[in-house]
Amino acid sequence: MKTLLLRFLIDNWQRKLFSLILAMIIWMAVNLSMTMTKIISNIPVRVINMPQEKTIEGMQVNGILNKRIVLTITGNKSVMDDLTSKDLEVVIDAQGKSDQWIASITKKNLASLNPDLDISKMINRVAPYDMIIKQSKLVTEKIPVRVTHPIGESPKGYQFLDVWPYQLFVTVNGPEDAVKRLKTRGLQLTFNLSDISHAELDASFVEKKNSDEVSFNVPLTWKKVSLPMLSDTPIEIDDPQAKNLRIDFSRQDMIPLDAPIPVVIYFPPKFSSTLNPETYTLATNDFIVKKNGVKMITYPLYASGVSQLFVDIVKDMIQVVVIAGSKSEQDTLLWNAEFIYPHELEDRFVARMLSDTDNDDDEIQPQLREEYLRNRFRSYMFHFRLYTANNKKLVLKIELQANTISVTPQNL
Asked: Distance between CA atoms of 275 and 263, rounded to whole angstroms?
């Protein structure tokens, strides 16, 4: 058997080798001569030689349009089998063209993105494709960027207070109509609190001695906005105030108020015929006591989400307001903790903060720093809540009785 196989390979080996080579040549010739037509979608379009003062809506800084096209291409079968939109781009020359023209795309507009693809030899034809090109005036504008309330959760042990500044501006270049629409609409910048680590805030807390507040300086990589119509990469916010961009947190530790809180009743005018100071009074009990003619809460209460300085300034100017209402409208009456003369309290807070020589906000311009501190105070007022000693929010049960209004805590 071995002898027969050897004789088969050796006998007339010259003719057999020649036949094999000839067969390979014929196969290659046939394969190269075979053509096929293929529809390829998502082909990028690049515009070159644009006048400096002109642009096209949806064109990136590299000249690529955000609109992609579909072409019908005929070429060598072996090449067409593997050809994709990643191997090609369409190049349109804008030199000498009017503001609007029709670009007829053919084989001459094709450019290869694949070094192994020779378009002149491997592609035979491209079915004509007409594309309307409209040039527009290139303008530069400052677009407002509104910094919104962050999403996500604050690191454990910290409570979100505020973000500052609330608005920035970013300089963009683009088609006049698109930029005008963008300027009217504006942009939004939203941070995710979940991207801030507990260790980062702890480090800031240690550095900022004798403070219940922590400011997280927003990193440069976060100070960007995405504008797919104008740029294929996020645009950095170039507003000088962006360097002051920060997110403020407070420690969630309970801060004792160490002051009694007066309790008053608000009688809405629409119920005054039956609900008024002559028909109903605030009842006293273990929770509401009367001292020197003033009814007040003397039970130890705490505040969270604010600073010690804020508590020191406002603790003697807080009162609980009970809203008297009809039994037919609600079973339990509503209440709220409010601040007396908040504008004066705000001025005191700002003055104390500005006089704090250890404050690390000196890089902010004085006018902007005062505005920042005023917003900090208002944020504290918004987040202010009363808590009990067991770290639970104070919940009051308020009811209309015979001729009194009863106020009792539900979670002491």
From this structure: 17
Q: What is the pLDDT of residue 294?
A: 94
Give helix 342-354 / helix 366-383 axis angle, nearest 10°: 130
Tell me the pLDDT tens digit for each residue of 220-240: 999 999 988 788 789 999 999
The per-residue pLDDT for range 148-197, each reduced to its tens digit, is 999 999 988 888 888 989 899 999 988 888 899 999 999 999 999 999 99
- pLDDT tens sequence across 264-301: 999 988 888 888 999 999 999 999 999 999 999 999 99
Give, in order, the Cα–Cα distances in Å from 241 to each of 82, 164, 172.
51, 10, 17
Asked if 196 and 158 touch (Cβ cutoff 8 Å), the reply is no
Q: Considering only CA atoms, give the Rg of the chain.
A: 38
Whether the CB-CB separation of 158 and 193 falls below 8 Å is answered with no
Q: What totals of helices (H) and strands (E) does the chain contain, helices first? A: 9, 27
Let me know: does 109 contact 90? Beta carbons within 8 Å: yes
**Spatial contact of 231 and 133, defined as CB atoms under 8 Å apart:** no
Q: What does the mean pLDDT of the chain come to?
A: 85
Q: How far apart are CA 267 and CA 399, in angstroms?
A: 14
Whether residue 298 contacts residue 260, with contact meaning beta carbons closer than 8 Å, is answered with yes
What is the CA angle 376-380-386, rounded to 5? Answer: 170
d(CA 378, CA 349): 10
SS3 call for 11: coil
Q: How many residues does the chain have?
A: 412
Whole-angstrom distance, CA of residue 226 vs CA of residue 91: 26
The rounded distance, in Å, linking the Cα atoms of 72 and 40 is: 6
Reduced to 3 states, what is the DSSP secondary structure of residue 26? helix
30's tokens: 């046939």
Helix (H, G, I), strand (E, B) or coil at 138: strand
| Residue ranges in 44-122 assigned as alpha helix (H) | 77-80, 119-122
Predicted local distance difference test score (pLDDT) of residue 283: 92
Residue 248 confidence (pLDDT) above 80: yes
- Asked if residue 77 lies in contact with residue 42, where contact means CB atoms within 8 angstroms, the answer is no
Cis status of the peptide bond prior to 165, with omega within 30 of 0: yes
Cβ contact 71:126 at 8 Å:
yes
Percentage of the chain surpassing pLDDT 90?
38
Domain boundaries, the chain: 1-33, 37-127, 139-251, 255-409
